[in-house]
Design goal:
about 140 residues; alpha+beta; about 25% helix; globular
């Protein structure tokens, strides 16, 4: 089965908790190594300091990684996050955020990803995350 942007949008709407859906993550495209997403500007994700909160970026990293794995697998496979390590390198001001997921390993039982986030149009990385997932189905 071909898994592209349309299937990713359907997966985001069907699989994840309502508050994740409300973040408005947008899949942009997929390749053999992973996928690209946008976290659109969302004032609900900005904390009192005037920047996008770390919890939102961590949730976005985890969610985008699962969807990128689904694209590489050709379908969503039920999985659970075993590890999520985030590094907040620089603050993200309100605005669109570009997200790149690279799948480092995608095995029968486990998968590993690396995520980088940048403010739209910026070259400097603002947030990185590495993740490990255990597949709960074949």
């Amino acid at each position: 089965m071909q898994f592209g942007v349309k299937e990713a949008e359907e997966t985001l709407a069907r699989v994840f908790a309502p508050w994740i859906v409300e973040m408005g993550l947008k899949p942009v495209g997929f390749d053999a190594a992973g996928g690209d997403f946008v976290l659109p500007e969302n004032r609900a994700l900005v904390h009192v300091g005037g920047i996008i909160c770390g919890q939102a970026t961590a949730a976005a990293a985890d969610t985008c990684a699962v969807v990128a794995l689904a694209a590489l697998n050709g379908r969503f496979r039920i999985c659970t996050t075993v590890d999520l390590t985030t590094h907040f390198i620089r603050p993200l001001k309100p605005g669109d955020v570009d997200i790149r997921v690279d799948v480092l390993s995608n095995g029968k039982r486990m998968a590993y990803t690396k995520v980088e986030m940048r403010a739209k149009g910026e070259t400097k990385v603002a947030v990185t995350a590495t993740s490990a997932f255990a597949y709960l189905e074949e």
